[in-house]
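Changelog entry: the Transcriptional regulator record was regenerated in this release. Current contents:
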Amino acid sequence: MVAQILSESKTEAFAGRMLDILNNSAIALMISVGHRTKLFDVLAELEPSTTQEIADAANLSERYVREWLGAMVTGNIVEYFPENSTYFLPREYAILLTRDAGADNIAVLTQYISILGAVEDQIVECFRQGGGVPYSAYKRFHEVMADDSGQSVVSSLDSILGLVPGLTEKLRNGADVLDVGCGSGRALNKLAQIFPASRFCGYDISAEAITRARNEAQGLSLGNISFQVKDVATLNENSRYDLICTFDAIHDQAKPDVVLRGIFQALRPNGVYLMQDICASSDIAGNLNHPIAPLLYTISCMHCMTVSLAMNGMGLGAMWGEEKALEMLQDAGFSSVEIKQLEHDLQNSYYIVRK
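Regenerated structure tokens:
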């Protein structure tokens, strides 16, 4: 055996990187706290302010706000002026951290870090024993997914619909629309508001998510929409819909192949299936330059893949990739697939699928 010669400089560089990883992980958690407490939204409206002024404006405890600001200042996110002990969120950062940022709000995504960390023990056991972690183990998951959907999908619906020529006009005139794996129904409720002449239906296996969706629809007084708790692997509907949507839903399914075949069957001959899913390659080599590949593989391992395996499913995971998606769409019977992206969206691809 040839002795391996270690590079001291390489070890030192990696030690520095590990410290950066630890600091950035901690900052991610505190950004999540800042998002949930609306501290970023408050700071974005303030001139340089003291901890007490910030806490009062946010209706929060000053002691906790002060410690949070310590993390934000040392993490180079919030500016600190020692001459008068005031803090300020640069406007250039606020446009990526506040709810007003819409689809550009990256802070909303940091909530997944704490959600995934809460199931680490179960995931470690799955590494040893196999199997998966069920949806029920994830606290706040549907709440955060709805938050994420509101920022990424709902705020971009005009652009998403614009990817399909003639679709907006068809919805204005009246169409039958199904959202498969609709979650808390944010996107579908918004569509029902915009297009009162169309009829909308949402299916999801989670009773919690469907309750959220129905409550929102009721609060908006929508009469052209319904939601149902349903295993979407059992659609069993024939040529019923002009438009079927899935927003970031197929790769989580236990039986994605069965779901896709059901969608093919439920779509009318001249209908459109709009599938939003992760923009990635099925081959890890194709993801080496992906800007958020480590995050997506982590979410896949600790949620998307494992919830499927918990139901004895295929365990595709979020990074199933374009090549696998195209293969499965063809196997389901679809003959026409276009893949499009939105300029601002580095995470998703939009598959325009027809029979």
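The beta strands are 79-81, 86-88, 176-180, 199-204, 225-229, 241-247, 267-278, 336-340, 348-354.
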